[in-house]
Design brief:
The structure holds 2 protein chains of 2 kinds. Chain A has 9 helices and 10 strands. The radius of gyration of chain A is 20 Å and the shape is globular. Chain A is α/β, with parallel strands linked by helices. In chain B, the strands form 2 sheets. Chain B has a 7-stranded parallel β-sheet, with helices on both faces. In chain B, helix 1 crosses helix 5. The chains are: A alpha/beta, B alpha/beta. At the A-B interface, helix 2 and helix 8 of A face strand 6, helix 3 and helix 4 of B.
């Protein structure tokens, strides 16, 4: 999925668009995976990446394979829905969580947190570190969900590439970290493994934001770099779900370049800080 | 379109594209932030086209946010410079700055951000943006490359070729005006219009005005 300029010179973008429509229709009707609400430019790029990764030359060829081969179908769905990693990605958000949101959470006897679209789980562990350092661990229950079981298994394992540690350590420091990130991870031959204690109060479960309903009311919902995968229409629906899942004055965290502008939900939230994508439910 | 791969033609007036330009993408090498500032200061406040600016990052640069770059560039520019958020509308008369750590793709009216892995070691990648713009805007795409040397795998080269192949216009900085910023290797950009750095902003501005007439 890292190749940009190597597609066939003869490709016909509008024919590919038609093929992608057919692929998504087949995927939905045969396998029940509805990806039609995903933002089309990104989806198309990822589908074409799958065509190359499968050693095929056309989207129609990919369609044949995914309709007949469940493993190929799982690879396609995994590639199209995959998120982004990195412990303490967007450090300013975690700094604001610590300074502005932790004091709010302290006012509750019991706190529920939802990581909606947790991908490989880095945000789950980053927030767990903040909550541990702030002494809140025991009264917080965390629910981490993703559409993909395979991704959830990786989130549960909490094993990441060791070479990412230096950059993560720097982000952790900028996020107001009180110790050293290496206090929370062990580096071995298999990579970097987060401390098991960080998932003591975490429940991992499969949930599809595009089709499933709200399952509880939360004080804090992090849904970061997930909405950008969706079309504007699906974004609006998912934001309605997240809004419904927040208690009054509950806090929603989005990705660094995601906003509520144009979503129809602007009036339901107020920004906690103009520079950070944390919003409090006010309506 | 008269291609000018030959240095004797450097600075020559290029013919206008057949179709009115709809969007301008400026891709600057990591070392060409100064050239980007020089380009921006040359744009008048009545500039009429949407403009997307993408400044490459050095491999060891792990900036999480381009807020500082945005402020620095704004100081040189009469038009508002804004970092792109996902699904932002594509607006004329505005400098849309590609944010750190996201790829930028386009639909007809809006930007789509992506967290796909780095391309050519870069995120945002100039190639990813240009390929998307070429596909969506075709002949209406204008691409300006600052300080890029066109070797295989250099971010921006494959995308510029796609813009050209889709009928768009590619403008590259005359290497004789590229300072220590890094030189554009003109010979490797076939069918590109080659202009002195100081001429690029006026040229692109006239493209926008041509659209109005």
């Amino acid at each position: 999925m890292t190749v940009a300029g190597t597609t066939e010179p003869t490709r016909d973008p509008s024919l590919e668009d038609l093929e992608i429509e057919l692929l998504l229709g087949g995927l939905s009707r045969h396998w029940g995976h509805d990806l039609r609400g995903y933002a089309r430019p990104t989806l198309k790029r990822r589908v074409l990446g799958c065509v190359r990764a499968e050693g095929l030359s056309t989207v129609s060829g990919l369609q044949e394979r995914v309709l007949h081969d469940p493993a190929a179908m799982a690879r396609l769905v995994g590639a199209v829905t995959s998120g982004v990693g990195g412990l303490f990605r967007d450090p300013s958000l975690f700094l604001t969580l610590r300074r502005r949101v932790v004091p709010l959470l302290r006012t509750y006897p019991f706190v529920r947190v939802w990581h909606a679209g947790c991908s490989t789980g880095e945000d789950v562990y980053a927030l767990a570190i903040v909550l541990a350092e702030e002494g809140l661990t025991t009264r917080v229950r965390t629910y981490a969900t993703d559409v993909s079981e395979a991704v959830l298994a990786r989130a549960k394992a909490g094993v990441y590439v060791a070479s990412a540690l230096a950059a993560a350590e720097s982000r952790y420091a900028r996020a107001g970290g009180r110790r050293s990130l290496s206090d929370y991870v062990t580096v071995g031959p298999g990579g970097l493994t987060v401390a098991a204690s960080l998932r003591d109060n975490v429940v991992f479960g499969q949930h599809n934001l595009a089709t499933d309903r709200s399952f509880n009311e939360f004080n804090l919902v992090l849904c970061r770099d997930v909405l950008l995968h969706f079309s504007r229409e699906l974004q609006t629906n998912v934001l309605a779900l997240l809004h419904e899942s927040l208690c009054r004055l509950g806090v929603l965290g989005l990705g660094a370049r995601e906003s509520l502008r144009g979503s129809g939900h602007e009036d339901h939230f107020e920004a906690l800080d103009p520079d950070v994508r944390l919003f409090r439910r006010i309506g | 379109m008269v291609p000018s791969t030959d240095f004797s033609n450097v600075g020559a007036r290029a013919t206008r594209p057949r179709v009115a330009p709809e969007i301008v993408v400026v891709g600057a090498a990591p070392t060409a932030a100064q050239a980007a500032a020089m380009f921006l200061v040359g744009l008048p406040d009545h500039f009429e086209l949407p403009l997307v600016l993408i400044v490459g990052a050095e491999a060891d640069d792990h900036r999480d946010d381009h807020r500082d770059l945005c402020v620095a560039l704004q100081a040189h520019c009469a038009l508002p410079v804004r970092q792109i958020d996902d699904k932002d509308p594509i607006l004329a008369g505005r400098i849309h700055l590609a944010p750190a750590d996201y790829h930028v793709l386009v639909e007809r009216r809006a930007f789509i951000l992506s967290t796909d892995g780095p391309v050519n070691g870069a995120r945002p990648s100039i190639d990813v943006l240009l390929e998307s713009v070429a596909e969506v805007f075709g002949e209406g795409a204008v691409c300006v490359l600052l300080g890029l040397s066109a070797r295989d795998g250099v971010d921006g080269c494959a995308g510029a070729a796609r813009v050209r192949a889709s009928g768009g216009l590619v403008i590259v900085q005359d290497p004789r005006t590229a300072t220590s910023d890094g030189a554009t290797d003109v010979a490797s950009f076939p069918a590109a219009t080659v202009l002195h750095l100081s001429e690029i902003a006026p040229f692109v501005t006239r493209l926008g005005e041509a659209e109005l007439t």
